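pipeline stage [seq->struct] | target=MFS transporter | organism=Paenibacillus thalictri | residues=471
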Amino acid sequence: MTPTPIISEAAPAASLHPIRKFGIRDKLGYLFGDFGNDFFFILVSAFLMVYYTDIFHIHAATVGVLFLVARLWDAVADITWGRFIDTRKPSKHGKFKPWIFRMSFPLVLSGILMFVKFPGMSDHFYLIYAFITYIVWGTFYSTVNIPYGSMASVITSDPVERTALSTYRTMGAMLAGLIINVAGPLILFVGNKADAGRFTLGAVLFGILSISCYMACCKLSTERITQTEHTRIHLRQTLHALVKNRPMLTILAASLIFMVCFMMVGAVNVYLFKDVFGNAKALSTVGLLQTAAAFVAIPAVKPLVSRFGKKTTITLGLLLSAVAYLALYLQPGLGIMPFIAILTIAMFGYAFFNLLIWAFVTDVIDFHEYITGQREDGTVYSIYSFARKVGQAVAGGLGGFAIAEVGYNAGGKTQTADALSGIHMLGTLVPAVLLLVVALIIVFLYPLNKQRTEALAADLRKRRDADAASD
Protein backbone atom coordinates (compact mmCIF):
# COMPACT_ATOMS: atom_id res chain seq x y z
CA MET A 1 0.00 0.00 0.00
CA THR A 2 1.37 3.44 -0.92
CA PRO A 3 1.95 5.57 2.20
CA THR A 4 0.22 8.93 2.39
CA PRO A 5 2.77 11.74 2.08
CA ILE A 6 3.01 14.26 4.86
CA ILE A 7 2.37 17.74 3.51
CA SER A 8 3.25 20.69 5.69
CA GLU A 9 3.57 24.43 5.49
CA ALA A 10 6.91 24.77 7.16
CA ALA A 11 10.49 25.32 6.14
CA PRO A 12 12.08 22.49 4.15
CA ALA A 13 14.17 20.13 6.25
CA ALA A 14 17.35 21.19 4.47
CA SER A 15 16.83 24.84 5.32
CA LEU A 16 18.98 26.37 8.08
CA HIS A 17 16.80 29.46 8.50
CA PRO A 18 13.15 30.01 9.43
CA ILE A 19 10.95 30.33 6.39
CA ARG A 20 10.05 33.86 5.40
CA LYS A 21 6.38 34.85 5.67
CA PHE A 22 4.38 35.38 2.50
CA GLY A 23 4.55 38.98 1.34
CA ILE A 24 5.25 41.47 -1.42
CA ARG A 25 8.51 39.74 -2.32
CA ASP A 26 6.61 36.60 -3.34
CA LYS A 27 4.08 38.62 -5.31
CA LEU A 28 6.80 40.43 -7.21
CA GLY A 29 8.70 37.20 -7.80
CA TYR A 30 5.62 35.56 -9.25
CA LEU A 31 4.92 38.66 -11.33
CA PHE A 32 8.39 38.44 -12.88
CA GLY A 33 7.77 34.80 -13.89
CA ASP A 34 4.92 35.59 -16.27
CA PHE A 35 6.63 38.83 -17.25
CA GLY A 36 9.44 36.64 -18.60
CA ASN A 37 7.08 34.06 -20.10
CA ASP A 38 5.01 36.52 -22.04
CA PHE A 39 7.77 38.47 -23.74
CA PHE A 40 7.91 35.63 -26.25
CA PHE A 41 4.46 34.13 -25.75
CA ILE A 42 2.71 37.39 -26.68
CA LEU A 43 5.24 38.14 -29.41
CA VAL A 44 4.52 34.73 -30.94
CA SER A 45 0.75 34.98 -30.43
CA ALA A 46 0.44 38.42 -31.98
CA PHE A 47 3.12 38.54 -34.68
CA LEU A 48 4.49 35.12 -35.63
CA MET A 49 1.74 34.40 -38.16
CA VAL A 50 2.32 37.65 -40.02
CA TYR A 51 6.09 36.97 -39.83
CA TYR A 52 5.56 33.60 -41.51
CA THR A 53 3.09 34.84 -44.14
CA ASP A 54 4.75 38.15 -45.04
CA ILE A 55 8.47 37.42 -44.50
CA PHE A 56 8.83 33.65 -45.02
CA HIS A 57 5.93 33.76 -47.54
CA ILE A 58 4.31 30.63 -46.13
CA HIS A 59 0.65 30.22 -47.05
CA ALA A 60 -1.70 31.08 -44.16
CA ALA A 61 -3.34 27.65 -44.22
CA THR A 62 0.10 25.99 -43.95
CA VAL A 63 0.89 28.21 -40.98
CA GLY A 64 -2.36 26.98 -39.46
CA VAL A 65 -1.19 23.38 -39.87
CA LEU A 66 2.13 24.25 -38.22
CA PHE A 67 0.39 25.87 -35.25
CA LEU A 68 -1.99 22.95 -34.89
CA VAL A 69 0.76 20.29 -34.98
CA ALA A 70 3.10 22.23 -32.68
CA ARG A 71 0.49 22.99 -30.04
CA LEU A 72 -0.71 19.38 -29.93
CA TRP A 73 2.90 18.29 -29.44
CA ASP A 74 3.28 20.92 -26.71
CA ALA A 75 0.19 19.58 -24.95
CA VAL A 76 1.83 16.15 -24.72
CA ALA A 77 5.10 17.76 -23.60
CA ASP A 78 3.25 19.60 -20.81
CA ILE A 79 1.85 16.41 -19.28
CA THR A 80 5.12 14.54 -19.70
CA TRP A 81 7.11 17.31 -18.02
CA GLY A 82 4.59 17.83 -15.22
CA ARG A 83 4.63 14.13 -14.45
CA PHE A 84 8.43 14.11 -14.59
CA ILE A 85 8.68 16.89 -11.99
CA ASP A 86 6.20 15.18 -9.66
CA THR A 87 8.30 11.99 -9.70
CA ARG A 88 11.54 13.81 -8.80
CA LYS A 89 12.67 14.49 -5.26
CA PRO A 90 12.67 18.24 -4.49
CA SER A 91 16.04 19.93 -4.02
CA LYS A 92 17.01 22.24 -1.19
CA HIS A 93 15.88 25.14 -3.42
CA GLY A 94 12.41 23.68 -3.87
CA LYS A 95 10.49 21.49 -6.27
CA PHE A 96 9.91 23.95 -9.11
CA LYS A 97 12.37 26.87 -8.98
CA PRO A 98 15.42 24.86 -10.08
CA TRP A 99 13.71 23.88 -13.34
CA ILE A 100 12.75 27.48 -14.10
CA PHE A 101 16.38 28.49 -13.62
CA ARG A 102 17.87 25.66 -15.71
CA MET A 103 15.52 25.68 -18.68
CA SER A 104 14.98 29.42 -19.15
CA PHE A 105 18.29 29.83 -21.02
CA PRO A 106 17.58 27.34 -23.87
CA LEU A 107 14.01 28.64 -23.98
CA VAL A 108 15.09 32.22 -24.70
CA LEU A 109 17.71 31.14 -27.25
CA SER A 110 15.17 29.07 -29.18
CA GLY A 111 12.77 32.01 -29.11
CA ILE A 112 15.32 34.30 -30.76
CA LEU A 113 16.11 31.70 -33.44
CA MET A 114 12.44 31.64 -34.51
CA PHE A 115 12.80 35.20 -35.77
CA VAL A 116 16.07 34.82 -37.67
CA LYS A 117 15.83 34.82 -41.48
CA PHE A 118 18.79 33.50 -43.45
CA PRO A 119 18.76 35.45 -46.74
CA GLY A 120 18.73 33.75 -50.12
CA MET A 121 17.20 30.46 -49.00
CA SER A 122 14.37 28.64 -50.78
CA ASP A 123 10.73 28.67 -49.69
CA HIS A 124 11.14 25.00 -48.83
CA PHE A 125 14.00 25.83 -46.45
CA TYR A 126 11.98 28.53 -44.69
CA LEU A 127 9.06 26.14 -44.23
CA ILE A 128 11.25 23.44 -42.66
CA TYR A 129 13.06 26.03 -40.54
CA ALA A 130 9.73 27.39 -39.28
CA PHE A 131 8.51 23.92 -38.27
CA ILE A 132 11.73 23.01 -36.45
CA THR A 133 12.31 26.27 -34.55
CA TYR A 134 8.66 26.72 -33.55
CA ILE A 135 8.29 23.18 -32.21
CA VAL A 136 11.62 23.37 -30.34
CA TRP A 137 10.62 26.68 -28.76
CA GLY A 138 7.24 25.29 -27.71
CA THR A 139 8.89 22.26 -26.08
CA PHE A 140 11.29 24.41 -24.07
CA TYR A 141 8.37 26.67 -23.11
CA SER A 142 6.73 23.66 -21.43
CA THR A 143 9.86 22.99 -19.36
CA VAL A 144 9.65 26.49 -17.84
CA ASN A 145 5.93 27.24 -17.79
CA ILE A 146 4.84 23.99 -16.10
CA PRO A 147 7.04 24.45 -13.00
CA TYR A 148 6.23 28.17 -12.94
CA GLY A 149 2.47 27.65 -13.04
CA SER A 150 2.63 24.79 -10.51
CA MET A 151 4.70 26.84 -8.07
CA ALA A 152 1.77 29.07 -7.01
CA SER A 153 0.15 26.18 -5.18
CA VAL A 154 3.22 25.71 -2.95
CA ILE A 155 3.97 29.37 -2.27
CA THR A 156 0.86 29.73 -0.10
CA SER A 157 -2.33 27.86 0.77
CA ASP A 158 -4.36 30.92 1.76
CA PRO A 159 -7.17 31.68 -0.79
CA VAL A 160 -6.75 35.45 -0.43
CA GLU A 161 -2.98 35.25 -0.91
CA ARG A 162 -3.49 32.97 -3.93
CA THR A 163 -5.85 35.52 -5.45
CA ALA A 164 -3.06 38.08 -4.97
CA LEU A 165 -0.59 35.77 -6.73
CA SER A 166 -3.05 35.31 -9.60
CA THR A 167 -3.46 39.08 -9.88
CA TYR A 168 0.29 39.71 -9.79
CA ARG A 169 0.88 36.96 -12.37
CA THR A 170 -1.58 38.67 -14.68
CA MET A 171 0.07 42.01 -14.01
CA GLY A 172 3.35 40.48 -15.18
CA ALA A 173 1.67 39.28 -18.35
CA MET A 174 0.11 42.69 -18.86
CA LEU A 175 3.44 44.47 -18.47
CA ALA A 176 4.96 42.18 -21.09
CA GLY A 177 1.89 42.73 -23.25
CA LEU A 178 2.25 46.48 -22.84
CA ILE A 179 5.84 46.36 -24.07
CA ILE A 180 5.15 43.91 -26.92
CA ASN A 181 1.88 45.41 -28.12
CA VAL A 182 2.98 49.04 -27.83
CA ALA A 183 6.66 48.84 -28.80
CA GLY A 184 6.29 45.77 -31.01
CA PRO A 185 4.51 47.37 -33.99
CA LEU A 186 6.89 50.34 -33.85
CA ILE A 187 9.92 48.04 -33.92
CA LEU A 188 8.71 45.26 -36.20
CA PHE A 189 7.02 47.18 -39.03
CA VAL A 190 8.59 49.60 -41.49
CA GLY A 191 6.20 51.50 -43.76
CA ASN A 192 3.26 49.31 -42.64
CA LYS A 193 5.19 46.17 -43.69
CA ALA A 194 6.81 43.46 -41.57
CA ASP A 195 10.61 43.77 -41.68
CA ALA A 196 12.84 40.68 -41.18
CA GLY A 197 15.77 42.54 -39.60
CA ARG A 198 13.50 44.40 -37.22
CA PHE A 199 11.87 41.14 -36.10
CA THR A 200 15.31 39.69 -35.25
CA LEU A 201 16.24 42.84 -33.35
CA GLY A 202 12.98 42.73 -31.43
CA ALA A 203 13.47 39.07 -30.52
CA VAL A 204 16.96 39.76 -29.12
CA LEU A 205 15.75 42.72 -27.05
CA PHE A 206 12.77 40.82 -25.68
CA GLY A 207 14.99 37.79 -25.02
CA ILE A 208 17.32 39.81 -22.79
CA LEU A 209 14.34 41.16 -20.84
CA SER A 210 12.85 37.67 -20.58
CA ILE A 211 15.91 35.98 -19.05
CA SER A 212 16.30 38.85 -16.57
CA CYS A 213 12.73 38.32 -15.39
CA TYR A 214 13.19 34.56 -14.95
CA MET A 215 16.20 35.17 -12.73
CA ALA A 216 14.20 37.63 -10.63
CA CYS A 217 11.40 35.08 -10.27
CA CYS A 218 13.83 32.44 -8.95
CA LYS A 219 15.47 34.92 -6.57
CA LEU A 220 12.32 36.38 -5.01
CA SER A 221 9.88 33.43 -4.78
CA THR A 222 9.72 31.00 -1.84
CA GLU A 223 8.16 27.54 -1.87
CA ARG A 224 6.47 26.89 1.50
CA ILE A 225 4.22 23.85 1.14
CA THR A 226 6.55 20.86 1.22
CA GLN A 227 6.03 17.12 0.93
CA THR A 228 8.31 15.62 3.56
CA GLU A 229 7.88 12.03 2.32
CA HIS A 230 8.41 11.52 -1.40
CA THR A 231 6.18 8.80 -2.86
CA ARG A 232 5.68 7.62 -6.40
CA ILE A 233 2.03 7.82 -7.42
CA HIS A 234 0.72 5.68 -10.27
CA LEU A 235 -0.50 7.71 -13.24
CA ARG A 236 -3.62 5.55 -13.52
CA GLN A 237 -4.66 6.57 -10.00
CA THR A 238 -4.03 10.22 -10.82
CA LEU A 239 -6.11 10.12 -14.01
CA HIS A 240 -8.92 8.29 -12.22
CA ALA A 241 -9.03 11.08 -9.63
CA LEU A 242 -8.90 13.80 -12.26
CA VAL A 243 -12.00 12.41 -13.94
CA LYS A 244 -13.82 12.93 -10.62
CA ASN A 245 -12.49 16.47 -10.25
CA ARG A 246 -15.48 18.43 -11.55
CA PRO A 247 -13.97 21.87 -10.84
CA MET A 248 -10.97 20.94 -12.97
CA LEU A 249 -13.03 19.57 -15.85
CA THR A 250 -15.08 22.76 -15.90
CA ILE A 251 -12.03 25.04 -15.83
CA LEU A 252 -10.41 22.94 -18.55
CA ALA A 253 -13.42 23.46 -20.84
CA ALA A 254 -13.71 27.18 -20.07
CA SER A 255 -9.98 27.83 -20.50
CA LEU A 256 -9.79 25.85 -23.73
CA ILE A 257 -12.55 27.91 -25.33
CA PHE A 258 -11.10 31.16 -23.93
CA MET A 259 -7.71 30.30 -25.41
CA VAL A 260 -9.27 29.46 -28.77
CA CYS A 261 -10.94 32.86 -28.69
CA PHE A 262 -7.96 35.03 -27.88
CA MET A 263 -5.20 33.18 -29.64
CA MET A 264 -7.26 33.57 -32.80
CA VAL A 265 -8.22 37.18 -32.06
CA GLY A 266 -4.57 38.03 -31.37
CA ALA A 267 -3.58 36.69 -34.79
CA VAL A 268 -6.56 38.20 -36.62
CA ASN A 269 -6.10 41.67 -35.06
CA VAL A 270 -2.87 42.18 -37.00
CA TYR A 271 -4.74 41.70 -40.27
CA LEU A 272 -7.75 43.65 -38.98
CA PHE A 273 -5.73 46.80 -38.33
CA LYS A 274 -3.19 46.32 -41.11
CA ASP A 275 -5.67 45.62 -43.90
CA VAL A 276 -9.18 46.68 -42.80
CA PHE A 277 -8.14 49.92 -41.12
CA GLY A 278 -4.85 50.33 -43.03
CA ASN A 279 -2.92 51.17 -39.88
CA ALA A 280 -0.84 48.36 -38.32
CA LYS A 281 0.78 50.76 -35.88
CA ALA A 282 -2.62 51.41 -34.29
CA LEU A 283 -2.03 48.05 -32.61
CA SER A 284 0.26 49.99 -30.28
CA THR A 285 -2.72 52.02 -29.09
CA VAL A 286 -4.76 48.85 -28.64
CA GLY A 287 -1.97 47.25 -26.64
CA LEU A 288 -1.67 50.30 -24.41
CA LEU A 289 -5.42 50.45 -23.78
CA GLN A 290 -5.58 46.71 -23.14
CA THR A 291 -3.03 47.08 -20.36
CA ALA A 292 -4.75 50.20 -19.04
CA ALA A 293 -8.12 48.40 -18.96
CA ALA A 294 -6.61 45.53 -16.98
CA PHE A 295 -4.95 47.89 -14.51
CA VAL A 296 -8.29 49.64 -14.00
CA ALA A 297 -9.82 46.24 -13.25
CA ILE A 298 -7.14 45.27 -10.70
CA PRO A 299 -8.37 47.44 -7.78
CA ALA A 300 -11.91 46.18 -8.38
CA VAL A 301 -10.90 42.50 -8.11
CA LYS A 302 -10.50 42.24 -4.33
CA PRO A 303 -13.77 43.96 -3.32
CA LEU A 304 -15.75 42.13 -6.01
CA VAL A 305 -14.31 38.74 -5.07
CA SER A 306 -14.80 39.45 -1.35
CA ARG A 307 -18.46 40.25 -1.92
CA PHE A 308 -19.47 37.95 -4.79
CA GLY A 309 -16.68 35.37 -5.14
CA LYS A 310 -14.45 34.56 -8.10
CA LYS A 311 -17.16 32.71 -10.01
CA THR A 312 -19.64 35.60 -10.19
CA THR A 313 -16.94 38.22 -10.81
CA ILE A 314 -15.54 36.38 -13.82
CA THR A 315 -19.00 35.72 -15.25
CA LEU A 316 -20.03 39.38 -15.16
CA GLY A 317 -16.79 40.41 -16.86
CA LEU A 318 -17.21 37.85 -19.65
CA LEU A 319 -20.78 38.95 -20.34
CA LEU A 320 -19.72 42.60 -20.58
CA SER A 321 -16.98 41.68 -23.03
CA ALA A 322 -19.32 39.56 -25.18
CA VAL A 323 -21.80 42.44 -25.49
CA ALA A 324 -19.04 44.87 -26.51
CA TYR A 325 -17.73 42.54 -29.24
CA LEU A 326 -21.26 42.02 -30.53
CA ALA A 327 -21.70 45.79 -30.76
CA LEU A 328 -18.53 46.01 -32.88
CA TYR A 329 -19.81 43.33 -35.24
CA LEU A 330 -23.15 45.09 -35.71
CA GLN A 331 -21.37 48.30 -36.81
CA PRO A 332 -19.07 47.21 -39.69
CA GLY A 333 -18.50 50.77 -40.93
CA LEU A 334 -17.22 52.04 -37.60
CA GLY A 335 -14.12 54.23 -37.75
CA ILE A 336 -10.88 53.14 -36.16
CA MET A 337 -11.10 55.34 -33.04
CA PRO A 338 -14.72 54.45 -32.08
CA PHE A 339 -13.83 50.81 -32.80
CA ILE A 340 -10.90 50.98 -30.39
CA ALA A 341 -13.04 52.73 -27.76
CA ILE A 342 -15.63 49.92 -27.71
CA LEU A 343 -12.87 47.33 -27.92
CA THR A 344 -11.42 48.79 -24.71
CA ILE A 345 -14.69 47.99 -22.92
CA ALA A 346 -14.42 44.41 -24.14
CA MET A 347 -10.83 44.21 -22.93
CA PHE A 348 -11.86 45.51 -19.50
CA GLY A 349 -14.50 42.78 -19.26
CA TYR A 350 -12.30 39.80 -20.06
CA ALA A 351 -9.47 41.20 -17.90
CA PHE A 352 -11.25 39.68 -14.89
CA PHE A 353 -10.88 36.20 -16.38
CA ASN A 354 -7.14 36.73 -16.86
CA LEU A 355 -6.75 38.22 -13.38
CA LEU A 356 -8.51 35.38 -11.57
CA ILE A 357 -8.04 32.21 -13.61
CA TRP A 358 -4.79 31.22 -11.89
CA ALA A 359 -6.51 31.40 -8.50
CA PHE A 360 -9.10 28.98 -9.91
CA VAL A 361 -6.29 26.62 -10.92
CA THR A 362 -4.80 26.54 -7.41
CA ASP A 363 -8.28 25.77 -6.07
CA VAL A 364 -8.48 22.90 -8.54
CA ILE A 365 -5.12 21.55 -7.31
CA ASP A 366 -6.39 21.75 -3.73
CA PHE A 367 -9.57 19.89 -4.68
CA HIS A 368 -7.42 17.11 -6.14
CA GLU A 369 -5.58 16.86 -2.81
CA TYR A 370 -8.93 16.90 -1.00
CA ILE A 371 -10.29 13.87 -2.87
CA THR A 372 -7.02 11.89 -3.10
CA GLY A 373 -4.83 12.92 -0.16
CA GLN A 374 -1.97 13.41 -2.63
CA ARG A 375 -0.19 16.63 -3.60
CA GLU A 376 0.48 16.44 -7.36
CA ASP A 377 0.89 20.10 -8.28
CA GLY A 378 2.96 19.53 -11.42
CA THR A 379 0.74 16.83 -12.87
CA VAL A 380 -2.53 18.65 -12.19
CA TYR A 381 -1.22 21.95 -13.51
CA SER A 382 0.17 20.21 -16.60
CA ILE A 383 -3.28 18.76 -17.31
CA TYR A 384 -4.67 22.28 -17.14
CA SER A 385 -1.87 23.52 -19.36
CA PHE A 386 -2.66 20.65 -21.73
CA ALA A 387 -6.13 22.09 -22.26
CA ARG A 388 -4.67 25.53 -22.90
CA LYS A 389 -2.25 24.09 -25.45
CA VAL A 390 -5.08 22.24 -27.18
CA GLY A 391 -6.90 25.56 -27.28
CA GLN A 392 -3.82 27.19 -28.78
CA ALA A 393 -3.55 24.36 -31.30
CA VAL A 394 -7.16 24.74 -32.34
CA ALA A 395 -6.85 28.52 -32.42
CA GLY A 396 -3.61 28.42 -34.39
CA GLY A 397 -5.11 26.03 -36.89
CA LEU A 398 -8.44 27.86 -37.10
CA GLY A 399 -6.72 31.24 -37.32
CA GLY A 400 -4.65 30.24 -40.32
CA PHE A 401 -7.48 28.38 -42.01
CA ALA A 402 -9.96 31.17 -41.32
CA ILE A 403 -7.66 33.89 -42.68
CA ALA A 404 -7.11 31.79 -45.79
CA GLU A 405 -10.81 30.93 -46.10
CA VAL A 406 -11.96 34.56 -46.13
CA GLY A 407 -9.62 35.11 -49.09
CA TYR A 408 -6.53 36.77 -47.60
CA ASN A 409 -3.74 37.02 -50.20
CA ALA A 410 -0.35 37.00 -48.47
CA GLY A 411 1.45 38.34 -51.53
CA GLY A 412 -1.15 40.90 -52.55
CA LYS A 413 -0.81 44.63 -51.98
CA THR A 414 -4.55 44.97 -51.41
CA GLN A 415 -7.30 42.59 -50.26
CA THR A 416 -10.77 42.02 -51.69
CA ALA A 417 -13.89 43.42 -50.03
CA ASP A 418 -15.00 39.91 -49.09
CA ALA A 419 -11.65 39.22 -47.43
CA LEU A 420 -11.83 42.46 -45.43
CA SER A 421 -15.40 41.72 -44.35
CA GLY A 422 -14.41 38.21 -43.30
CA ILE A 423 -11.47 39.51 -41.26
CA HIS A 424 -13.82 41.96 -39.51
CA MET A 425 -16.21 39.14 -38.65
CA LEU A 426 -13.39 36.98 -37.27
CA GLY A 427 -12.28 39.82 -35.01
CA THR A 428 -15.72 40.72 -33.63
CA LEU A 429 -18.55 38.18 -33.91
CA VAL A 430 -16.43 35.10 -33.18
CA PRO A 431 -15.11 36.39 -29.82
CA ALA A 432 -18.61 37.57 -28.86
CA VAL A 433 -20.02 34.06 -29.28
CA LEU A 434 -17.09 32.26 -27.65
CA LEU A 435 -17.03 34.54 -24.59
CA LEU A 436 -20.74 33.96 -24.05
CA VAL A 437 -20.15 30.20 -24.12
CA VAL A 438 -17.36 30.51 -21.53
CA ALA A 439 -19.62 32.55 -19.23
CA LEU A 440 -22.38 29.94 -19.44
CA ILE A 441 -19.92 27.14 -18.59
CA ILE A 442 -18.74 28.99 -15.48
CA VAL A 443 -22.29 29.80 -14.35
CA PHE A 444 -23.87 26.39 -14.76
CA LEU A 445 -21.02 23.90 -14.37
CA TYR A 446 -18.33 25.23 -12.00
CA PRO A 447 -19.20 23.99 -8.47
CA LEU A 448 -16.81 25.96 -6.22
CA ASN A 449 -18.58 29.14 -5.20
CA LYS A 450 -17.24 31.51 -2.54
CA GLN A 451 -18.49 29.49 0.45
CA ARG A 452 -17.29 26.11 -0.83
CA THR A 453 -13.82 27.46 -1.70
CA GLU A 454 -13.34 28.83 1.82
CA ALA A 455 -14.52 25.54 3.35
CA LEU A 456 -12.11 23.58 1.12
CA ALA A 457 -9.12 25.67 2.22
CA ALA A 458 -10.04 25.33 5.91
CA ASP A 459 -10.41 21.55 5.66
CA LEU A 460 -7.03 21.12 3.98
CA ARG A 461 -5.32 23.28 6.61
CA LYS A 462 -6.71 21.02 9.34
CA ARG A 463 -5.49 17.90 7.52
CA ARG A 464 -1.98 19.29 7.06
CA ASP A 465 -1.75 20.43 10.68
CA ALA A 466 -2.85 16.98 11.84
CA ASP A 467 -0.30 15.25 9.57
CA ALA A 468 2.49 17.55 10.73
CA ALA A 469 1.59 16.97 14.40
CA SER A 470 1.66 13.20 13.98
CA ASP A 471 5.04 13.19 12.20
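stage status: PASS
auto-comment: Strands lie at 7-8, 189-190, 193-194, 226-227. The chain has one domain: 20-223+233-470.
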